[in-house]
Amino acid sequence: MGANEGKSASELLPDQLDLPALRGAAAGCQACDLWRTGTQTVFGEGSPRADLMLVGEQPGDQEDLSGKPFVGPAGRLLDRALEEAGIDRGKVYVTNVVKHFKWTGRGKRRIHEKPNQAEISACSPWIKAEVEVLRPRLIVCLGATAGQAIIGPGFRVTKERGQVKRSLLGPPAVGTVHPSSILRAPDEESRHHAFQALVADLRAVAREV
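The chain above was modelled as a monomer; its predicted structure follows.
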């Protein structure tokens, strides 16, 4: 058994809360079983003075290998959407509710699998600490999992996207789609409309901050 296995993530939080200390502590997190199949913890990244915090569900395949959030296909699409919305990614902070990649094998491919509530709860001290350190003016929840973890279990992207809500973590939050959902759209026209809707949500976010 590893030194941190079976420990709650809250037990691993450093005494001095800052992003480098949190990142270092999270690297050894074994609060749930996802560390067994993930390559590494993928912690948040971005400006320590960010007014805007973007939160997704979990790292994907490329993020798991690189150790950086939102660097795969969905991350590149998010970069495009932020640019079109007039938001400088270098001035925001991006992270995920769950810090390890949950996947199932399909041949040689690793296919994303949705984290369950126990895994989300086990990882929640990290996102709470990130918010406490950053104190963003607004949190953008990318996708249903992030929205339900941060805004509340009743949140529905289809009904409440783009609306400023109270969050469970303090700062107000807005929910929108996860960029990966756009990549899964059935055809080019659908992807185009979904992308433009994401850009519109991000433009509204930019006006808020």
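The longest strand covers residues 52-56.
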